[in-house]
Amino acid sequence: MGKPGPDLFVVNEFFVGLVGEARRQGRGVLFRWRRALEAAVWLREHAVPAAPSAYGVWIEDGAAVRFLLHVDHDKPGRLSSTPAPPAAAWLADYRQAPRGVPATAVLVLCPTRQREDELHRDLTADPLPVTVATTTFEQLATAGNGAEAIWRVVGAEPAVLLRLAEIGR
């Protein structure tokens, strides 16, 4: 299986934060989650060629949010001398989903606010067939978990931050 990469640690912390929120507040539950490989295989079964960092289902107040989590990078890989692709390039495969994307939203964790703004500009100009919501690593760390009101939805008012359970409603 190889050594775990940095994405695995980010994804694990994201899910641990959701479980902790559910235990502390009792208002939500992480119903299901899948690692990157399992999520990619599941998506291919639905004819979606994308490769998310993870998949999860968060249930709160009777609403379920099925999400595909992506950890964005604004740097090329360690062995690459080419620049990182545009922020939206990581998500282009969702446009190839002939039967739609089997999720409520694609969540993107961005390394910086500038990278997040770039992603919003690109996806507003060329939208995906699924809701996309973003936050930064800093916002996630400050909030303590991904259930909080830290998510900016592409195409919506940029100053409005939503809770995970509010995305796609």
Protein model, in words:
By secondary structure, the chain is an alpha/beta fold. It has one domain. It has 4 helices and 6 strands. It has helices at 6-25, 36-45, 113-125, 137-143, and strands spanning 28-35, 54-60, 63-71, 105-110, 131-136, 152-153. A 6-stranded mixed beta sheet has the order 1-2-3-4-5-6. The longest helix has 20 residues, at 6-25. The relative contact order is 0.16.
Write a concise synopsis of the structure shown.
This protein is α/β, with parallel strands linked by helices and 169 residues long. It contains 4 helices and 6 strands.
Secondary structure elements and pairings:
Elements: H1 6-25, E1 28-35, H2 36-45, E2 54-60, E3 63-71, E4 105-110, H3 113-125, E5 131-136, H4 137-143, E6 152-153
Parallel strand pairs: 3-4, 4-5
Antiparallel strand pairs: 1-2, 2-3, 5-6
